[in-house]
Amino acid sequence: MRPLVWGLIIVVTLVIQATLLPLITAGGVRPDLLLLVVVSAGLLLGRDQGVGMGFFAGLLQDLASGNIFGASILSKTAVGYIAGHMERKVFKEKILLPLMAVLIATVINNTVMIVLLVSLGFKVDVPTAVDNTLFVLGYNAVLAIPVHQIIYRVAKSELPDPNG
């Protein structure tokens, strides 16, 4: 694991998510690039990398957003763990893998966030939150494969050689 490289990827992703993505929102909803990076890193490099990336991405997202501190940490770390747990059970080169994983991860991430907010006593309009999740699903589905290909290129040197 090259922590400096992965840390830089998270920071650049956060900057893009905070500055460029608000320009392409639909109804105030935008894709979650940090989630896409966490899922791809977990799928490619395993549970430890997924958890580490999820924690760091969630920490920076919580610090940058001003939302409830810890909510993104919890949801992104959980998603990184689940994606990383699947690392040995999947073919890394398959193109549909990141798409399916991102769809599942988006639902998990948003569900954790909604449940956490409700359990902490915040008023959450659940039907609107579900609608927003569907928009995020669409955005993330469009960006899942390109983001995964970028992360795959960065992670290639850390992947075990399939030929032995």
From TrEMBL:
Membrane topology: Multi-pass membrane protein
Alphabetic keyword roster: Cell membrane, Cell shape, Membrane, Transmembrane, Transmembrane helix
Pfam family, one: MreD
TM spans (from-to): 6-26, 63-83, 95-122, 134-155
Keyword Iron-sulfur belongs to the record: no
Subcellular location: Cell membrane
InterPro entries: Cell_shape_determin_MreD_prd (IPR017225), Cell_shape_determining_MreD (IPR007227)
Domain of life: Bacteria
Family to which the UniProt record says this protein belongs: Belongs to the MreD family.
NCBIfam families assigned to the protein according to its UniProt record, in alphabetical order: shape_MreD (TIGR03426)
Protein name: Rod shape-determining protein MreD
